[in-house]
Specification:
The chain has 224 residues and is α/β, with parallel strands linked by helices. 29% of the residues lie in helices and 27% in strands. The structure holds cytidine-5'-triphosphate and calcium ion (CA). Cytidine-5'-triphosphate binds next to α4 and β9. Its cofactor is FMN; Mg(2+).
Amino acid sequence: QQDQMKTGKLQGKKVLISAGPTQEAVDAVRYFTNYSSGKMGYELAKAAAGAGAEVHLVTGPSKLTVPNNVITYQVTTAEEMYEQIVELYNNMDIVIKAAAVADYKPVKQINKKMKKKDGNLFIELERTRDILKYLGEHKKQQYLVGFAAETDNVLSYGKEKLEKKNLDAIVINDISNKEIGFQSDYNEVIFLTKDGEEKSIIKSKKEAIASQLIAFIEKETRKD
Ligand code: CTP
Ligand code: CA
């Protein structure tokens, strides 16, 4: 599979990939985040670059070393990720949104360290912007691929996101299984296209999943 893609099937294509979690500050020393490691997105970036694409990786905070053959943009918050992606979006051929973007952020960000007080603490959260939905609404030539993390009704929730966000395809992750997904080197996904094509990728290393996904996506983009 990998060798097949090394022949440069994505030569001349610009690919935008988002990866990792976002961090939403509460005060000077605290933030909200999630368990995303960034691995899936980084492997996708490597696979796309290996296939000859010009790869732009927009990444939230991740411990991983950035691949050297991709153009990397480091961001922290969902808002920063939105700004960076929108700046790049118009020139892209393929966009893959693997990032685990925070759905909520604190209404107030306090610049100082909050002092503890007696009793419970309530932090009010507001919705962040749905970056992927925005991209779907402003889609032109781009082949747009989203991700879905689900713990139940995996396929139907995934399909719903594909339609609601005007995607060309979605990669559905079952995160109820702790052996795979978020922090793991392994994953197991379903690739679903808007035309109803459905491909299951059995449990494998994220590196192998990434090269299969890039191969599927490349094939789909040749259809239209
Ligand atoms: N996403 C995004 N911006 C957000 C939230 C999510 O771009 N503010 C993108 C993710 O990068 C992913 C897709 O939307 O590609 C699906 O994310 P997911 O968390 O599974 O779904 P949500 O639409 O956020 O819905 P929910 O968390 O309620 O299931
Ligand atoms: Ca979400």
